Structures are given as structure tokens and as C-alpha cells.
């Protein structure tokens, strides 16, 4: 029976915290700060446009690359907001969320044995997707440097087989982001080693302390950069599954080849909704961002007060707090907190070894939930 | 609008301490700002939003929207006559409107009789009021940005990456 499953998949490690997730899902009346998606629903104008399109009978396939109207709007948006120019004809591809874009990117550029640098802790799919494409993930712990990848760390981990690097900022799970100056420093190392930079900027709209700068906007880096973004986080559209990849036309053409055979195209309803989001969703994005920022201040201040030390994250909606001054490791901390106080958070090691000793707290939750969860966490910590 | 007002408009019970944390400001500064808003009448009052559809009082009130046509007074325009109308406690809201009529007056009363009596005896016979059209309100769906229905349950799965 074992031989039925491919070697690559056999070797893929199942997530170590699956059991913990099952425990959470099986429990009632849990306050969950373990959710990786906005607690807002998609703005009504977006939902309404999708309903209307269905009534009008828009139920067909679209072009493989995605509807031209959507690609045009994305190109215009990127020009206005990030000062990056992409040709909607052959430099933009609409994908099923950033997840698909990442998978396509890996399959399009990796030859067996190529190495990919992955700053860690990181989103759970980066390693497995690299391995599925035949690549070798090289995890680089960012824990010693405030969860930021440094040019020195890139230098140390590069060799002749290193082909690409995946950088996600603002980061899930740490909330850390990079200023323009940080990016300039990383640029030199990336160019020196001729790395392809896969830049996952899906949380870009949720940057609180400075304006988000896109890697692709730095001079001389655009030809090495594959820019990934989507509608999930900024427009509260996780379930619609719409993302996009922008980059050099050779890479986009290669990704489109795989996409047309595997996915064909993104659901037309979701694409129409995405058009509407770009057209009318800006106000909602700004409102949600203000609300997240207030929650960030509230949560980080309280975490530090109750003894879970935590730097102020610059973006996304996560706080990554240390549990090292308790005697518990990440998973035990989360399990006991869940059992004793019915609060769910995600153990840091779910995002890689270097996340051990930390927990991820999502503040994509209402103030009343945050208040109550923090109160319970304080009781839990006092009882330790 | 100041973020302090935005927070209070969403939840008036948010304490100054919490607001201070949310905005990363001094509590004393927040308290001072709120006092100033109260003094200047920017914040008029704090009240609960009650879904009367659910209170099921026997004495639940009837509401009517009344279009009022008036003859504006020399030098005073609509304001004086509007004041005479909105000073009645039965009037819960009063707006000057562009279009085919002048004032939109919202009246609350115990039943249809009290409302019609008010319109007949107080409003339509008032000097300068040329005519009224009364619309009784049948059901409220949304008021002041609040949807009047049960809170929907959370549809997200409890934990995810």
C-alpha cells in the first residue's frame, strides 16, 4: 500500500500541530485568537456585485490569465499605490489565491536539487511547495535578528545551487515588516547571488508604522522579482480565493502554462468580485486598517503587561509573543491555555522550528473577544 | 473625524483607559479630549441602541414619518417654524429636506390614534403649515447604521494558519 503514494509526498512532514487544531475544533465556547483571516465579512458592494453577475448569467470560463478588466485594474492599482508598472497583457496572472501563485512559481523555476531560502518562522506552505517542485528548502532562522532576514544571513546560506528566496512581509506569523531602507540592504545580497525573489506581500495594506514599499519598486530589482498579492487579507475576501502574480514575462508565461493545464482559470464570480473590490473597496480597506491598528496597540500593550513579551508588529494582524519565561514550550502552553481557559492561539513552532518558544495571537477578532481572551490569559499565567 | 469619536460612536462604553491603549496615547489626554467634546456639544449624550422589535411591550410605540409643507417666514426662513414643530416631545427627529416638501418630521406615539391626533390637532393647523402627508412605519430594518436583527454567528473556522 505504501508504494502507491509518491516518495515526495511520503517524505512531506505532516503538520506537527494537527492534533492541537483538532482539539480546538472539537471544543465548544472557545475564544479563538488563532484565526488567520479577517473577522470582517467582505464589503457588501463586493458581495452584491457577485450576486448581480450571477443573475446576469456570468457563469463561464474566463481567459486563462484572468479577465482582462481585472488585470488592467490591478496594473493601474499597482502603478498608483506602489509605483510599479506591469503590463496587463503578459506580466500579470490571476491565480487561486497567493497559494496557487506560489506553487506555480516554484514549479516554473525550480529544477531538481535547486535550493530555496526561506526565512523562518514563516507561513506553513513555503517549504512543502518547494519540495513538491523538486527543490530543497533552506530554512534561515530569523529569531536571533528580531524575526527579520538580514543580508548577512542570506550571504551565509547561499551556495551555487541557491536559486530563489521567499520573503513575506508584513509577515505571517510575526507581523514584522521591512522599511524601504531594510529592503535596499537586502537588495544587494539578492542581486549578488542572482536570486529570484518571490515576494509575498499579501498583507501589504495592513502596514501601520510606515508606508509599505514593494520590492519590485526598488530600482534594478524588478527583473528578479515575482510579486505576489491577493484580495484575501486587505478586502476580507479569503473564501473567494483570488490572488495574482506579477513579474518578468518569461516567468509569468511559464506559470501560465502550468495554470492553464491545472486550474484553467479562476472562478469568474470571484474575479468580478475582485474588480468591484478594487473599484469601491478602498474606503472599507482604510476602515479595517484603522480598526486593526487600534487592536494592535491594545493587544501588544496588554500582552506585555501580563508577562508575555512581544515586540510591536509593524503589520498584518498577528502578535508573536514569547512564552519563554513560563516553563512551558509552545505547544504545551497552547494546549493548557485551551483546556484551562478556553482560549485558542497557535503555537509558534507551527511556523517552523525557530518559532518554538512563541505563540501567534491573531487580533483579527472583536474588541470584546480580545478583552475577554486577554483577561483569561492573565488568569492562566497567574496560575502557572 | 477624530479616532476617539470613531471608537465611542462604535461602542460608547469603551473606557478612556482602553481608548488610550488603542491609540497609544496618555489616558489624561484622552479624558481631556472627551471632556472637551462633551462641553462643546460634539458628544451630546451616550445611549443604548435598543431593538424595539424584540422588546414586545404591549405599549410599544407607533412611528410615523410626516412630510410637511410650510410657508417660510420672512427673515427667518424655515428655522422658526421648524423649531415650533420639533419642540414637541412627540417629535423624535426633524429634517429640512430638498424636493417636493420641506420638513420631514418623525413622530412617535402610543398608537395610531395619538399620532393622527397630533397631526390633526397640532401640526396641520399650525400657522404656516400648508399641508402634511403621514406615512406610518411598518417595520424597521436598519437604524443609524445598525442592522436590527440577531447577531449572526461567526462563520470562520476556529483556527487556521
Please, could you describe this protein's structure?
The complex is a heterodimer of chains A (384) and B (161). With 384 residues, chain A is an alpha/beta fold. Chain A has two domains: 2-41 and 283-382, Aspartate Aminotransferase, domain 1, CATH 3.90.1150.10; 44-281, Type I PLP-dependent aspartate aminotransferase-like (Major domain) (Aspartate Aminotransferase, domain 2). Helix content of chain A is 42%, strand content 14%. Chain A contains 13 helices and twelve strands. In chain A, strands 2-8-7-6-5-3-4 form a seven-stranded mixed beta sheet, sandwiched between helices. In chain A, helix 6 (126-132) links the parallel strand 3 and strand 4 (136-141). In chain A, helix 5 (97-109) crosses helix 9, helix 7 packs parallel to helix 8 (180-192) and helix 11 runs parallel beside helix 13 (367-382). The longest helix of chain A is centred in the last third of the chain and has 25 residues, at 282-306. The model of chain A has no long low-confidence stretch (mean pLDDT 96). Chain B has 161 residues and is an alpha+beta fold. Chain B folds into two domains: 3-40, no CATH class; 62-139, Lrp/AsnC effector binding domain/regulation of amino acid metabolism (RAM) domain (Alpha-Beta Plaits). Chain B has helices at 3-10, 16-23, 27-40, 79-86, 112-123, and strands at residues 62-70, 91-96, 103-109, 129-136, 142-143, 146-147. Chain B has a four-stranded antiparallel beta sheet with strand order 2-3-1-4. In chain B, strands 5-6 form a two-stranded antiparallel ribbon. The two termini of chain B are 35 Å apart. The chains are: A alpha/beta (384), B alpha+beta (161). At the A-B interface, helix 2 and helix 11 of A face helix 1 and helix 2 of B.
